[in-house]
Every structure is written in structure tokens, then in C-alpha cells.
Amino acid sequence: MTAADTHRAIEAVFRIESARLIAGLTRMVRDVGLAEELAQDALVAALEHWPESGVPDNPGAWLMTAAKNRALNDLRRKKLVERKHEELGHDIEAKQEAAVPDLEAAIDDGIGDDLLRLMFIACHPVLSTDARVPLTLRLLGGLTTEEIARAFLVPEPTIAQRIVRAKRTLSEERVPFEMPRREELAARLSSVLEVIYFIFNEGYSATAGDDWMRPGLCEDALRLGRILAELAPNEPEIHGLVALMEIQASRTAARVGPSGESIPLFEQNRAGWDHGQIRRGLAALKRAEDLGGALGPYQLQAAIAACHARARAPEETNWSRIVALYGELARIAPSPVIELNRAVAVSMAYGPVAGLEMVDALVSEASLAGYYLLPAVRADLLAKLGRFEEARAELERAASLTKNAREKELLLARAAACARGSAPRTR
Amino acid sequence: MRFMMIIKANKKTESGALPDPREFEAMGKYNAELVKAGVLLDAAGLHPSSKGARIQFSGGKPTVKDGPFTEAKELIAGFWILQVKSKEEAVEWAKRVPFNPELHFEGQGEIELRQVYEAADFGEELQVAHDKALKGS
Q1: What is the mean pLDDT of residues A388-402?
Q2: Do B38 and A216 touch (CB under 8 A)?
Q3: Could you read off the pLDDT of A145-154 as tens digits, one per residue?
Q4: Interchain CB distance below 8 Å, B88 and A8
């Protein structure tokens, strides 16, 4: 094994252990920034010693000891006079001496909770999305700053700065290393899920030719979601989010055409869907459902995605169920886009007249003004009703709103078909 | 990226004898670690080759041969599919598979790692051909 090989092997170990390490250290030193520095120091120590001594049997325990030793040395070196700091040093030293034989137990005991606390901190709502996302990927996702920068198409120093500022904000706001109080739990959890889904969507929106770290963000988000699902198995929305991500990701191979254009759901080759991933998604959805309780937005979106995933062909889609699910989603988390999706489902279940009525009501919606799918959907429904001239006008409007060249071509082709008075191939 | 982690067979797994409860527990703990780390996508144990078959092709024609097959070391007894960021990470997980010297494996065994092809690995032309074939069927 070359030195470079050994280096990479040690980094792989660190990637596996780092989140737990940082979580345990944060509990000790009560400062996320310091905890991360100590973890990095432990990595440096590993890179120095392991090439010769070999990777230890329990690398997590070794890294924790190295980090704790560093913390103690730092305290001694600073020669802090304040009694408080001396006492703290004695405390840690005493615990350290007592803890050495039980290091494994100490690390495992409560570490799950520590990891969950770390997730809550990294996704704290006091931080902006710009700050939460890279901080979470760094502390919990095990990504390096460089990898995060490549994934978000942003220079590395920018990411480094965002992470530094995030840690400083947490420190200044004195965000405690505690589980959120019961009354805050739903909102704090929602914040964590938002971060994970944001990461997923960044990856999902990656286009061919992007750095492979970008679509890799989907895997990173799924991994974080799965970890969270084990840390808090009784929270149905977590399983709902994992289900949604698995099912969406299952279509990755089928949803992009040879020229990089996105293929709509109903035209995708369903044999190209990753059925193992669908199976995992449906299993996660079942875990959510088995927990009972009111359905949250992620669980609802996952249930809708599951309806599509279960249909072997578009004609087998259970549209009335989808309509009911969108109805519930529109009730708890209304938005114009959800309303548009609901209109499509209604038209599929109950016919184009019912759908068109709903879409017409959205035409004046300001937030959808530049959204090409609104006129595109309207065109579909008009064409189904034989109103080809109006459909043509809507398709041309849709074409003018999309930035994607291939998509524009397809829309204009459909407009031309309408001009000839024939029903264009619909979605 | 995904890796298949394959555990090789031995005389004991080929005999169809069920694992020692301590071994089962150790493997259960290991699998739980994979789940907690969010890396486990799939896993299964395989019945001994006596319940299986081989289909050998010669001149394009298949011949069926029922198990058992004799070279235990070359046979497989189970697999995991892991989602990892690098081969090194898969190797690290493989190194943690429990082979307890006190239990029947006598501390010995072999894990093989193979990277799983993703659709993107095949490139555009093959993808288009593959899609065409599936649409036609």
C-alpha cells in the first residue's frame, strides 16, 4: 500500500467516525467550533501514527482519546489562572483517568442522543440556509470543505467562510447543546428536514456534465435522512422524507434524455426506474404510516410519489388517491404550485373540464407568472377539449418562458401540431 | 457509489447448519451499525449451493447442473449492498465484518468487494440502446 493509499484509507475511517466524534466532543466542550477543531487534530494524529501502527481495532475510541488528550494539553498550555478553568481541567482529567477502561462504553453510551443534538444544532433556525447547509454537510455528512464547494459550484473560501460564520453565530447566540424542548420539537425537526431536503434538491437539479459531487448530494441527503430515521425512529415525517427522496431518486436514470432534456414522468421508461430504491422508499413510507397520527407534508408528498412508483404504466396510476392526497397537502401546506399539481391530478381523475376550472383560477397568481408549466398544463387541458387555437397560444407562451432550449423545441412542436388542428401528444 | 460486499462460503455454511446464536448476534450488531450509519441498502444470506443450480452455456446452448458445488472457497454465502463515497470506505466497512476466532469461522473468512455499475457508467449511446430495447418489449 502506498502512502497515498494509506492516507485515503485513514480519511475513509475518519469520514465514518467524524460525526460521532464531533458530537461527543461537543457535549464535552460545549462549543461546536472547538469540537470540530479537536476532531481535526485527532485526524492529524491518526495520519501521523496509523501508517506505522496500523488502523486500530476501535478507530472511533482511538480518535476520541486523541481529541480529549489534545483538549487537556490545550488547557494546560494556556495556563489559565481562573479557578473555573482549572476545575474543568481536573474534572476532565479525573473523568479521563476513570474513563479510559470504559472508553468504548462511554462513547457508545448516549452517543445517539449526541448525534441527534448535533443535527439539531447544525440545522438551527438562527442560521440562514446558506450557513446550515454547509455546516451540516461538514459536521454530519463528513464532507470536506472542498467537496462541499464543488457540489454547490462555489469557491472553497466562500464555503469555509460560511462555516466559520455559522459556528460564530451559534457561539454568539449561545445555542445550547440540548434536545429541543417539547414545544419546540416540531419546528426544530422541520428545520432539520428542510436542510436535508434542500441538499437533496440541489443534487436532483444537477445536470449532465456537472461535477459528480453535485448529483452525489442526493446520496448525501439520503444518508443523513437514514441516519436521522434511526436516531428518531418515532418521527413519521423523517420516514416520510426518506421515502420521498428514495422514490424521487429512483427515477434518476430515466428522467434525463440523450440531449440532456428532462423527460416528464409519464413519458419515462419505467423499467429504467431503480426498483430496489422504490422498494426502500415504500418501506420507509410504511414505517411512517405504521406510526399513525396526522399525515405531514413530507409523508403526503411521499405517498403521492408512491402512487406513481407503484403504477407499472401511466394508465395504471391511482389518480383519485392522488387527488385526495393533494387535497390534504393543499390544506396543511397550501401553495400555488401544489394547487397546479392538484389541478393536473383532478383532470386525470375527473376529466379536463374540472381540471381547467382550477387552472383558470391560477392564471392571475403572481408567483406563477413566469412559471412555464402553468400555460403548458393549461394547453394540455384545452387541447383535450378540442380548443386547439387556444392551446397553441398557451404552448407558445410556455415556450417563451422556459430557458431550456430542448424543452422550448418540444413545446413549439406541440404548438405546431395544434395549429394543424390535431391533438398534440399530451403528457 | 455502491459496492456489493460478498461473504464467501465455507464448509459450515455449505453444510446448511444454522449459525451459532453468538455469531448471529454479532452479525446482527454489525448490520445495525450499517443501518445507523445510513449506508445499508440491501443484505441477504444465501442458502447452501445444494439448493441451487448452475446453468452453463456452450455454443450458446444451456446445460443445467444442480448443486452442491464442491469448491466451497469460491462459493458465496451472502451479500450486502452499501452506499459509500469511496472504495476505501467500503473497505473499512468490510474490515469490520465480525469473524470471531472463538466461533465457527475460526476467525477466518473472506469478503469480496465489487463496485456496482450505475446507469451513468454506461454512457449515452448504451443508455439510448438500452432504453430503445426496453420500450420495444
Answers
A1: 93
A2: no
A3: 999 999 998 9
A4: yes
Beta bridge partners of B6: B79, B112
- β partners of residue B4: B81, B114
B100: helix, strand or coil: coil
Could you give the C-alpha distances from B71 to A392, A412, B16, B113, in angstroms and in order?
68, 63, 15, 20
Mean pLDDT of chain B: 88
| Percent over 70 (pLDDT), chain A | 89
| B2-136 fold | Alpha-Beta Plaits (3.30.70)
Q: Which of A15, A224, A271 sits opposite B89 (nearest CB)?
A: A15
**Chain B residues lying within 8 Å of A142, measured CB to CB:** 85
Per-residue pLDDT tens over the stretch A148-171: 999 998 999 999 999 999 999 999
User: Looking at the complex, does the CB of residue B127 fall below 8 Å from at least one CB of chain A?
Assistant: yes
Name the residue type at position B61.
K
Grid cell in block for residue A52: 506505522
Cell 423527460 sits at which residue? Answer: A263
Q: For residue range A73-112, what is the model confidence (pLDDT) as tens digits?
A: 877 776 555 556 666 666 665 555 444 333 333 344 456 6
Query: pLDDT by residue (tens digit) across A220-268?
Result: 999 999 999 999 999 999 999 999 999 999 998 898 877 777 788 888 9
Question: Where do we find the cell 485526524?
Answer: A43
ipTM of the complex: 0.88
B59: left (phi over 0), alpha (psi -120 to 50) or beta: left
Q: What is the pLDDT of residue B124?
A: 63
A95 closest CA partner among A186, A24, A185, A8: A24
Helix (H, G, I), strand (E, B) or coil at B82: strand
The partner residue sitting opposite B41, judged by closest CB among A8, A252, A280, is: A280
Question: In chain B, what are the domain boundaries?
Answer: 2-136
Nearest residue in chain B measured CA to CA from A254: B131
Chain-chain contact of A269 with B134 (C-beta, under 8 angstroms): yes
What span, in angstroms and rounded, lies between the C-alpha atoms of A166 and A172?
A: 10
Bond before A59 cis per omega within 30 degrees: no
Are the C-beta atoms of A143 and A160 separated by less than 8 Å? no
Q: What is the DSSP letter of B98?
A: -
